[in-house]
Amino acid sequence: MSSSTGTILRTTRDIVSYYGLWTGEQFATPDGRLDLSAAIYRAVTGSTPNCFLDDEDMALLLIESNPDVIDAIRMVSAVLPTQPCTTEIAPGYEVPDYVEHVSNWACTAPVFADQPPTVSEVIGLLTRAADTADNLAGASPVRSAA
Predict the structure, then answer these.
(1) Are 79 and 73 in contact (CB under 8 A)?
(2) 3-state DSSP assignment of residue 90
(3) CA separation (Å) from 123 to 56, 91, 139?
(4) What percentage of residues in the chain have a pLDDT greater than 90?
(5) 46/12 Cα distance (integer angstroms)
(6) Distance between CA 97 and CA 87 in Å, rounded?
(7) What is the Cα gyration radius of the chain?
(8) What is the pLDDT of residues 35-58, one digit of tens each?
(9) What is the mean pLDDT of residues 87-101?
(10) Per-residue confidence (pLDDT) for residue 113, from 0 to 100
C-alpha cells in the first residue's frame, strides 16, 4: 500500500461530494457523476477517460492496471462490512474482485434496507478508509521475538 492511499481516498471523497455518485450502468455519466471505482481512478490520474461512459471492459482494464487505484480500492474494500466476491481467472484459481465489491456496495441496498448507501454514507466510508490507510502507513512493522 502506498503511503498516499489516504490522500487518494480523501481526494475521492471530494470528487464524490462535488460531482455526485453514479450507481447505474457503466462507470460514469456525461454530467460528471462517477462510480466509486471510477472516482478513485480520477483521484489518482486527474482524468476520466471517455471509455468510462460506454466501454465497461476498457474502463475496468484501466482501473485494474493502475497500482495506486487498486491499492485505494482494496483499502475501501477492507473497511466494508462484507467480503469481496471472487472471480475465477483460471480453472480452479479464484481471486478477490475488489472493484466489483466496492462498486456493488455503493449501488446495492444492504440486507434489511430499502435503498443503497447515501452519498453521505459513501463519503463517510471513504473517510474511514483514508484514516485506516494513514494509520497503516504510519505503523511500524511487527517484529517477532526470536
Answers:
(1) no
(2) strand
(3) 24, 38, 24
(4) 84
(5) 10
(6) 6
(7) 16
(8) 999 999 999 999 999 999 999 999
(9) 93
(10) 85
Q: How far apart are CA 135 and CA 129, in angstroms?
A: 10
The secondary structure of 15-46 as a DSSP string is HHHHH-B--SSSSB-TTS-B-HHHHHHHHHHS
Strand partners, 21: 34
* 129, 76 Cβ separation under 8 angstroms: yes
Residue bearing the bigger pLDDT, 80 or 142: 80
Indicate the burial class of 46 (C-beta count within 10 angstroms; 0-12, 13-18, 19 or more). Answer: exposed
Element (H, E) at 123: helix 119-138
Query: Assign residue 22 a region: left if phi > 0, alpha if psi is -120 to 50, beta otherwise?
Result: beta
17-to-28, 126, 145 alpha-carbon distances in Å: 15, 11, 46
CA trace torsion 25, 45, 137, 18 (10° rounding): -60
Grid cell, residue 140, equals 511500524
What pTM was estimated for this model as a whole? 0.89
